[in-house]
Amino acid sequence: MTGLRIGRLVLLGVVALLVLGGFAAGDVTVLSGSNLSSMAVFAVEVGIIAFGQTFVICGGDGGIDLSVGAISGLAEVLTGMLIRSGSPWPLAVLAGVAGGAVMGLINGMAATLLRIPAIIVTLATMFMFSGLALVATTGINIDLTSAPPAFLAIGQGKLLGLPFQLVCLYLPILVLLALLQHRGVFGRALYLTGTNALAARLAGISVGRLRATTYVIAGTLAGIAGIIGAARLGTATPEGTDQANLISIAIVVLGGASIFGGDGSVLGTALATVVIAIADYGLSYNDYNPIFQAGVIGVILVIVVLAENVLRHRLERRAAAKMEEGTV
Amino acid sequence: MSVHAGMEAAPARNWPGLAAGREVALLVALVAVALAVSIVSRGTFWNPVNIRSLMVTSAITAIPATGMTIVILTGGIDVSIGSMLGLVAAIGGLAFEAGWPLPLVAPLFCATGGLLGLVNALVILRGGVPPVVATLGTLSIFRMCVFLVLGSNWITAIPPGLTTIFIATRIGPLPMVSVIALLLMAGAAVILRAHRGGRHVYAVGNNEEAARLSGIPVRRIRLVSYVLLGVCTGAAALVQLGQSPLVQTSTGTGFELSVIAAVVLGGTELAGGRGTLLGTLLGTLIVSLVTDAIVLMHIQPFWGGVVLGLIILASVGAGHLGQMRRQEVI
């Protein structure tokens, strides 16, 4: 499978166990069922956003989406306001998800039709979407504690003792996206586009439309993540998922995707999400400040990429040396 | 793209052409926005207090925007400067608290900024980490360091001399900060335009491989650009304390966004190799003007982000559409 290296998955698994073991050594209660379940609940929201980020980055051409946090905020505000105005909750949820898709479409069109670099597009739309969310709510959270219980169950329900959103949303989305990426034409076309856009175009792939689709996917998923968060907390906040940009990009890079495109897999992303979730939850469990948690994620991001580059250089040098020996 | 990149190699031809057109458009936009604001605000815009605060705010953005322009010209980017500004202010604030005199602390601000810029440069150049990823990481790392330095305390022991020197002292109609920012920009513009090192900046951004093959020290140019941005950010941290004499953990949050917005609005291309400091100056003024206008017109401050985002998309999008039309002829 392109973009999925077994070695990377094993490495991530080991790192996840080490981090978890480290926290457990400090305080065994971290391993209790309710704590593991809170960890999973945190992972679901950033994890779903990171899936979308994986597709966008995989499309190449400097693809990156800095607006995912803002999209999640505006989508959950939209859903929250509709519920407060008395609309049936499935309609409100649908509107939030559709809103996320439309915001992603705006990103995709600006990045592909107008050929504006993705960083600038999504920086600008980040300003716009989070600004609109703040304007709509005048900066105040929308209280949803009196929303229909069926809606709140999206973020608070349990199924077979496991969080509802993990079993009924995260895992199905993961399976769907993994099939899309590794077993479908779309995934093959996306890898080719990210690796060599010219070759993709000559092979008859509509490169622009394909890349725009990745932004729509990212927007839709960010919308879903925002709504899950609103249902979990019983409030819709215009800020959306906390630190979504940093965490989602860190997860994608940690999961083995190349920031230059054409590489990476949602399966790697899923495993990297586990690592980040454990680190983040372990820190907040031990009462570290959120600023500190973000800092640690930054350290993990930089160190992993650094270590990988150093290792790759060394391996390449060794391979080159071997080649030279062979010729002599 | 490649056609224009080729043209860029001959700056003399390029100046009256593409770039100048962009700057005239920006100037027209600036005048239009200023006119609209002065009409809607019924003249309160021209209140000397407002004009002075506008000049101070834009100068504080313009100083790091100068460094950011150079970094982006080489094809890099630095999204960490908001946290960098906070960290420099926190460390400098501690020095103020310890009673160090201003002439000693001022260089400390610039040196700390330069050092943090060097950290970014080493991670990017030595470690081979893409600039966005590296500085996104240091954005949160520097912020964590601010938190480690300050705890949950505020630093308020900022000498009033800062305000006196940078904000209250005026040369002609301009506050001292604005004069400093303008001199810095003019100096950097001359270097970019006429000095060998400045030309190398454009060469590296246009075609790194070609630059390397023609003997330009590509890595050194890149390194210097990040360090320079750090020094500028340090200077901005000092001046900013003159405007609001308080350091807290959130100091500088989101600052990187307005600086990058100003540079991008000014027509500097993220791919590198194309852009001018005159454009950045105009971009800075537009960004500050929009923010100021929203306060003046008593609109919810949250509209600021919406308007700024729209302006960036519209302006960069229009530029790209024009470019594509020209390329279709070929």
Give an account of the 3D structure.
The complex is a heterodimer of chains A (328) and B (330). Chain A has 328 residues and is mostly helical. Chain A has a single domain, classed as ABC transporter involved in vitamin B12 uptake, BtuC, CATH 1.10.3470. Helices cover 76% and strands 2% of the residues of chain A. Chain A has a two-stranded antiparallel sheet with strand order 1-4. Chain A has a two-stranded antiparallel sheet with strand order 2-3. In chain B, strand 1 and strand 2 form a beta hairpin. Chain B has a two-stranded antiparallel ribbon. Chain B starts with a helix and ends with a helix. Chains A and B meet through helix 5, helix 11 and helix 13 of A and helix 6, helix 12 and helix 14 of B.
Please outline the helices and strands:
The complex is a heterodimer of chains A (328) and B (330).
Chain A: H1 6-26, H2 33-58, H3 68-84, H4 89-112, H5 118-137, E1 142-143, H6 149-156, E2 158-159, E3 162-163, H7 164-182, H8 185-195, H9 197-202, H10 207-233, E4 235-236, H11 244-254, H12 266-285, H13 290-327
Antiparallel strand pairs in A: 1-4, 2-3
Chain B: H1 2-8, H2 11-40, H3 48-73, H4 81-97, H5 102-125, H6 131-150, H7 161-168, E1 170-171, E2 174-175, H8 176-194, H9 196-206, H10 208-213, H11 218-243, H12 255-265, H13 277-296, H14 303-329
Short description:
The complex is a heterodimer of chains A (328) and B (330). Chain A is mostly helical and 328 residues long.
Helix content of chain B: over 70%
How many separate helices of chain B?
Answer: 14
Tally of structural domains of chain B: 1
The total count of strands of chain B amounts to: 2
**Main sheet attributes: strand count, strand direction, barrel closure of chain B:** 2 strands, antiparallel
Looking at the overall shape, the CATH architecture of chain A is Orthogonal Bundle
Element-level helix/strand string of chain A: HHHHHEHEEHHHHEHHH
Q: Report, as a whole number of angstroms, the end-to-end distance of chain B.
A: 11 Å
* H/E topology pattern of chain B: HHHHHHHEEHHHHHHH
- Tally the structural domains of chain A: 1
Query: What oligomeric state is this?
Result: heterodimer
